[in-house]
Amino acid sequence: TILDNAFAGDVAITALTIPSTVTQLDSFAFSGCDGLTTMTIPYGITTLSASIFSMCDNLVSVNLPSTITSIANGAFYFCTGLQSITIPSAVTTLGSSSFYGCYGLTSITFESGTLLTSIGTTAFGECGNLPAIIIPLGVTYVGYKAFDLCHALTIDCEASEMPLDWNPDWNFSNCPVTWGYVPE
User: Fold this and answer.
1) Which of 16, 86, 92, 108 has the most CB atoms around its CB within 10 Å?
2) Ranges of the chain whose pLDDT falls below 70
3) Residue 184 has what pLDDT?
4) CB 128 within 8 Å of CB 150
5) How far apart, in whole angstroms, are the C-alpha atoms of residue 151 and residue 79?
């Protein structure tokens, strides 16, 4: 286990290899590690804990293993340099503010066969450069202002209409939405 706050605020860390024997990464473990530019999470880790990479300004890319099932609240909060991310198909939950303030994010991909069911409150808030997102069919909950202040965003939803459990203000910024989107 890499414990809570283990490397938090250590700006001197530019690269880190997490051994495959590590099975748990606790909250804030790498928060504020501005020297990190890339990170590979080892196979076997199932959760990205709360605020694990929050405020890692220069983190450009993160490689997530297929074993990840949830991305907790604030996991990538204000990772302003993050450019793209692929969400493994086993992920069922994106926590509140999980990608909040990721201004550099220009691409998010959900792997084919995704099990995603929940996108938390302000999950993608202030991702102002994100041009498009496809919300998979299985998503039964989207929280309040999930895409707030994403003024360049176009949202394609595989669902034919808004599911009942989505917050009525999930699209507070009135991004263009296409219902019944069929992936190519």
Assistant:
1) 108
2) none
3) 80
4) yes
5) 19
Distance CA 178, CA 154 (A): 8
| DSSP state for residue 2 in the 8-state scheme | B
How many other C-beta atoms can be found within 10 angstroms of the C-beta atom of residue 84? 14
CA–chain centroid gap for 58, Å, is: 16
Cβ pair 101, 128 in contact under 8 A: no
For CA atoms 78, 64, 130, 71, the dihedral sign is negative
Q: Which residues pair with 119 in a beta bridge?
A: 94, 142
CA end-to-end distance (rounded Å), the chain: 40
Burial of 127 (0-12, 13-18, 19+ CB in 10 A): buried
Q: In whole angstroms, what is the distance from residue 96 CA to residue 156 CA?
A: 20
Copy the structure tokens of residue 103: 């201004």
Residue 157 has phi, psi (to 5 degrees) of -110, 130
Q: Which two tokens stand for residue 107?
A: 């691409």
